[in-house]
Specification:
CATH architecture: Alpha-Beta Barrel
Helix content: 25-40%
Strand content: 15-25%
Largest sheet: 8 strands, parallel, barrel
Radius of gyration: 20 Å
Number of helices: 14
Strand order of the largest sheet: 6-7-8-9-10-11-12-13
Structural class: alpha/beta
Number of strands: 16
CATH superfamily: Aldolase class I
């Protein structure tokens, strides 16, 4: 702990840029590396989840991520459930280059109401493809649409917000009690974000199948600038992993997945997140560079279109390849933005590990 003057003490925290992975005394053949991971009853080919952001996830791209072996998540409060045909809206957004005008346009188009029939239609389209998939709701709208989502046959429901607790306290509304909510649902729930040991443990005790650690996508820095809230990812993941271990003992063997959500811009970030204790990473930025990305190179999250307090940035990335190339290669760039799966396998092979669980014990150094 460090003294901040005479009246406050603070812990030193580290981000992914502050750490690096140390090689061991052995290496492995890359063909011996197994990236499969299991969350609840679902086994996936690799530990990458596509973030529920309209700029990267449409029903078609959710299906493609599932076909390739990952898990796609559709935002059920996004354009795909507010508009019969969101393509013209996406085209209008892509034509705006001024940041202020873009924020105002985002707030305008997301003011349209959510249409329940479109939730059924979009989820039915994905379900018909026969791939694992998830759907996302905010804590505010979770209770209203949850039963409809469960009836649609999703594999997971994701409750995702900037900061989420197991029990929100309010003197004016009837808030979502996550423990009761999760218990009553007939589908596993992934919930977050959280950023410290006690909140992670609380969410695990509430019954979550997985917890999201971090503040999601490009909103991390904006959340710090607007709200003053941030816990750097390396420290947040290490604390959540410690909570996972303690809860495993406390519950008699119930394992809750820890998922890094935020600060993931390259394949190296994914590797370092796992080395810090993550079971998987929720990825946004790399997919914004895909040819199939609905945002046409522009990338934004729900914080960017908050009706009264926008605190996310709509950013632009150059298109570099297909969704398949970004996920599983081959790569044509050297900056860690393509072949994310191959890069993670290469990191494990280069440091002597054969699977994700053992790689969580990798040695780290501060840089």
């Amino acid at each position: 702990m460090y003294d901040i003057g005479r009246g406050k003490r603070a812990e030193k925290a580290y981000g992914l840029d502050d750490v690096a992975i140390v090689p061991t005394k052995r290496t492995r053949d890359i063909d011996d590396v197994d990236l499969t991971w299991k969350i609840d009853a679902v086994t996936l080919d690799f530990p990458l989840i596509a973030a529920p952001m309209d700029s990267i996830m449409s029903p078609d791209t959710v299906i493609e991520v599932g076909r390739l072996g990952g898990l796609g998540v559709l935002n059920l409060e996004g354009l795909w459930t507010r508009y019969e045909d969101p393509e013209p809206v996406l085209t209008q957004l892509a034509a705006i280059t001024d940041p202020l005008a873009a924020t105002r346009k985002l707030q305008q188009v997301y003011s349209a109401p959510i249409i329940p029939e479109l939730i059924d239609r979009r989820l039915g389209q994905i379900r018909a493809a026969g791939v694992p998939f998830a759907a996302s709701l905010s804590p505010k709208n979770g209770r209203q649409h949850a039963e409809q989502v469960v009836a649609a046959g999703v594999d997971f429901l994701v409750i995702r917000g900037t900061t989420v607790s197991a029990q929100h306290v309010s003197s004016t509304t009837d808030p979502l009690d996550l423990k009761r909510f999760i218990h009553d649902l007939d589908v596993p729930v992934i919930v977050g974000g959280c950023a410290n040991y006690h909140t992670a443990l609380h969410l695990m005790r509430a019954g979550a199948a997985g917890i999201l650690v971090g503040f999601g996508g490009g909103a991390r820095r904006a959340t710090r600038n607007v709200l003053g809230i941030e816990v750097p990812m390396a420290t947040a993941l290490s604390d959540a992993a410690a909570a996972r271990g303690d809860y495993l003992d406390e519950s008699g063997g119930r394992y809750v997945a820890v998922i890094a959500d935020g600060s993931i811009g390259s394949s190296g970030d994914i590797a370092k997140a796992v080395a810090c204790g993550a079971d998987a990473a929720m990825v946004g930025v790399p997919f914004a560079r895909a040819v199939e990305a609905p945002g046409a190179g522009y990338h934004w999250g729900p914080e960017a279109w908050h009706p009264t307090l926008s605190r996310g940035l709509r950013v632009h990335f150059d298109t570099i390849g297909s969704l398949e190339e970004i996920l599983v290669g081959p790569s044509s760039v050297a900056d860690g933005s393509m072949n994310l799966v191959g890069a993670l396998k290469r990191t494990l092979a280069s440091t002597g590990f054969t699977d994700v669980k053992s790689f969580q014990k990798a040695e780290l150094v501060l840089v």
